[in-house]
Design brief:
Layout (H helix, E strand, L loop, with lengths): L3 E8 L6 H9 L15 E6 L6 E9 L2 E8 L3 H11 L9 H7 L1 H9 L11 H10 L5 H15 L8 H6 L8 H13 L5 H6 L2 H8 L7 H11 L11 H11 L5 H5 L6 H17 L4
Antiparallel strand pairs: 1-4, 2-3, 3-4
Helix pairs in contact: 3-4, 4-14, 5-8, 5-11, 10-11, 12-14
């Protein structure tokens, strides 16, 4: 990829382990890492929201400091901001240990996953596209559909830009092509802007995403909580989270009851419980 390169240093507030986060993200099929060099850095290729150009990011950790290097042809400052968001490096996590103090279940999860910060999709746009691709098909099948779009229509390994996706004649199961075109249109209209969704109350952000054709309640939650990487949203359409809450807190426990102690990191707590469940059941990170 030709273009410029820019480096930035960001102090991360609160617990953070790039190694733990990288292990988590390596097992996350929609945003799986590629071309890792075997060192401690995290590398990824992504589509920037600001101008829809492809960029690369390399992230290294030095104590509480994140060293970000982004390269591409577009707005690199905006790209670096986006990297910090999808790695949760921009969240003040100094209050996160106190959640584990209030809730022993989360405290145990924090000890099992030291320094984990939820790594999300590169953008709400990509999260919305994944939500469409994964409707009514298996995760491996959805991952193959996504890989095919990147291979045939992406830019340097990044997901196709919205204008490109909107113009494609796609041969996909069901109404996926129609819904992907709607997602692309919403991204171009600014409806899926990550910074804007992150700034809203999570319920208001989810309601905003629900305006996009083809995105139901579960998909809208995914876009906000894992696309915009909102730190304090409570998943309400996640059966596996409900099962894990029943397993760890007792059969009568509800998500609303236990999640009151998780604020303002409800997304983080929910992700930790999901990770532990997948490790226990499948031996996988996610």
């Amino acid at each position: 990829m030709t273009g410029r390169e820019q480096s930035a240093v960001r102090e991360v507030a609160g617990p953070w382990s790039l190694a733990t986060s990288r292990i988590f993200w390596e097992g996350f099929a929609p945003a799986a890492l590629r071309d890792q060099a075997g060192d401690a850095a995290l590398r990824t290729v992504f589509l920037t929201e600001h101008d829809w150009t492809a960029a690369t990011a390399t992230v290294r950790q030095d104590g509480a400091t994140a060293h970000l290097t982004v390269a591409g042809t577009g707005d690199l400052e905006a790209a670096a901001t986006q990297v910090a968001r999808f790695l949760s490096l921009d969240v003040d996590g100094r209050g996160w240990p106190a959640v584990g103090g209030r809730d022993p279940v989360i405290g145990a999860a924090q000890r099992a996953l030291p320094g984990l910060r939820p790594c999300g999709f590169h953008s709400p746009y990509e999260a919305a596209a994944w939500a469409v691709l994964s409707q009514r098909v298996s995760i491996p099948q959805a991952a193959r559909l996504r890989t095919g779009l990147i291979t045939r229509h992406g830019d340097h390994g990044a997901f196709p830009a919205p204008a490109r996706l909107r113009a494609l004649e796609l041969d996909l199961p069901g109404r996926k092509a129609e819904y992907l075109h709607a997602v692309a249109e919403a991204a171009l209209d600014g409806l899926l802007d990550g910074g804007a969704l992150r700034s809203l109350d999570p319920d208001a952000a989810i309601a905003r995403v629900r305006q996009v054709k083809g995105l139901g309640p579960f998909a809208a939650e995914l876009v906000v909580l894992r696309g915009a990487n909102h730190p304090d949203g409570l998943p309400r359409h996640e059966a596996r989270l409900d099962a894990e809450i029943a397993e760890r807190y007792g059969a009568g426990a509800t998500r609303d009851q236990v999640a009151s102690a998780w604020r303002p990191y409800r997304t983080w707590a929910a992700v930790h419980l999901r990770v532990l469940r997948e490790q226990r059941i499948r031996g996988a990170v996610f």
